């Protein structure tokens, strides 16, 4: 999913300049000095230094916003005006954003990557003719053509309800296409030597955290959807709009009995919710896969499992939204594990698994029950967490 974050990052930049506010990573260190930040959180923290030493200048006037960063010859210039946005970076990358769309040119002729974004969608051309990869993104989804042979690959971006929200029933499409189907298993399978087919995917949505003061200034309510869509230049009939609507619905709906839930729209608010439920002697852990790209659906073997929490934890699931939003919930009768895995292709993973010992209040048609062929409340149900999710446990 792609969102227009220009307005938000402008707000972010101006907020930091005007207030010298504490950044999310600094807030983390102040509240949790003994708890390292997981890689998945680090990747979502948008950091910026605004100082003369970094040679970054921001000018705001009637004509628009101008940003200059770096030394001459290595600098990046950003100009924001009524006509659109222009970005020039000293290594041959030019970006122009106007009413007609977006044009990106990077690299030398013959080795360049051209990206065009207009009303019809997005076109990407990379490499030389005959060896090039073409990517087209439109309302219908994503089409990828690579080389001479093969058919275009269609990638559907709509994912449906979050499978880690336990009052939802799974749709037929989720059962067929959702990679999270493979993440559910029974607790008695959690031991050395067990083989499972798993699909660890990298998050294609690079939405990062906003500072709390910025996130709190943006509406986060289904009643404000038109205003939110306008804020991020989202068309109401787009896939992005439907995903955002789904996220707001999941955040606003009542949780299952005994569940304490909260949607964190900033890292600071996620830290506050988790520490309010578990205390400040907590650590955050996430799944880490030793691979730069998404790995294929393949057989993994459990090399070992270590219990992290016996009865309580806060689990936070990354949502589809224009900026980083996490659906966090504390449930009792929950056990968390750190599981060492090795894939058939040699991929190593340190995965977080969460086991729920009381599922009696879950929707009987939840994805887990349909995949595992068990009934609510009958046996503990476990699932691995994708890389961009976080579990908080006391220590």
Notes on the structure:
The chain is an alpha+beta fold. The chain has a domain at 172-394. The chain is 19% helix and 34% strand. It contains 9 helices and 23 strands. The chain has helices at 6-19, 24-31, 39-42, 172-177, 212-215, 225-231, 239-252, 267-278, 367-372, and strands at 56-61, 64-69, 76-81, 84-89, 93-98, 101-106, 113-118, 121-126, 133-138, 141-146, 153-155, 184-186, 195-198, 260-264, 282-285, 288-289, 298-309, 312-318, 326-332, 334-343, 348-356, 381-384, 390-394. Strands 1-2-3-4-5-6-7-8-9-10-11 form an 11-stranded antiparallel beta sheet, with no helix packed on it. Strand 4 and strand 5 form a beta hairpin. The chain is globular, with a radius of gyration of 23 Å. 28% of the residues are buried. Mean pLDDT is 73; it is low at 10-19, 47-68, 70-75, 99-103 and 108-160.
**Count of beta strands:** 23
Specify Rg, calculated over alpha carbons.
Answer: 23 Å
Mean pLDDT: 73
Which range does the strand content fall in?
Answer: 25-35%
Helix content range: 10-25%
* Individual helix count: 9
CA distance, first residue to last residue:
36 Å
Lateral arrangement of strands in the main beta sheet: 1-2-3-4-5-6-7-8-9-10-11
Note the main sheet. 11 strands, antiparallel
Q: What's the overall geometry?
A: globular
Keywords: Signal
Protein name: BURP domain-containing protein
Organism: Lactuca sativa
Domain BURP: 184-395
């Amino acid at each position: 999913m792609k969102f227009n974050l220009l307005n938000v990052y402008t707000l972010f930049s101006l907020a930091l300049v005007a207030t010298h506010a504490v950044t999310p990573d600094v807030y983390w260190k102040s509240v949790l000095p003994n708890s390292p930040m997981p890689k998945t959180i680090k990747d979502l923290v948008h950091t910026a230094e605004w100082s003369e030493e970094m040679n970054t200048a921001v000018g705001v006037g009637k004509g628009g916003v101008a940003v200059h960063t770096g030394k001459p010859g290595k600098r990046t210039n950003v100009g924001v005006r009524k006509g659109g946005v222009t970005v020039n970076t000293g290594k041959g990358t030019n970006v122009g954003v106007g009413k007609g769309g977006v044009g990106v040119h990077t690299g030398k002729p013959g080795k360049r990557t051209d990206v065009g974004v207009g009303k019809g969608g997005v076109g990407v051309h990379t490499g030389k003719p005959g060896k090039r990869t073409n990517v087209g993104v439109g309302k219908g989804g994503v089409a990828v053509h690579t080389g001479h042979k093969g058919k275009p690959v269609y990638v559907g971006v709509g994912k449906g309800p979050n499978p880690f929200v336990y009052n939802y029933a799974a749709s037929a499409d989720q059962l067929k296409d959702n990679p999270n189907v493979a993440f559910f298993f029974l607790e008695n399978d959690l031991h050395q030597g067990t083989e499972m087919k798993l699909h660890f995917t990298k998050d294609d949505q690079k939405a990062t955290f906003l500072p709390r003061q910025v996130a709190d200034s943006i509406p986060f309510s289904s009643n404000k959807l038109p205003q939110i869509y306008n804020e991020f230049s989202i068309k109401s009939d787009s896939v992005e709009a439907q995903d955002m609507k789904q996220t707001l619905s999941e955040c606003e709906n009542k949780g299952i009995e005994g569940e304490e839930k909260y949607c964190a729209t900033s890292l600071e608010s996620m830290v506050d919710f988790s520490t309010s439920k578990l205390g400040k002697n907590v650590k955050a852990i996430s799944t880490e896969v030793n691979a730069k790209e998404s790995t294929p659906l393949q057989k993994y073997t459990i090399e070992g499992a270590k219990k992290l929490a016996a009865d309580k934890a806060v689990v936070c699931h990354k949502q589809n939204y224009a900026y980083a939003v996490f659906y966090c919930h504390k449930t009792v009768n929950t056990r968390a594990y750190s599981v060492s895995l090795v894939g058939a292709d040699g991929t190593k993973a340190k995965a977080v698994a969460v086991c729920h010992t009381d599922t009696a209040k879950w929707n009987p048609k939840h994805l887990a029950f349909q995949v595992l062929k068990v009934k609510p409340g009958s046996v503990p149900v476990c699932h691995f967490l994708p890389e961009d999710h976080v579990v908080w446990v006391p220590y």
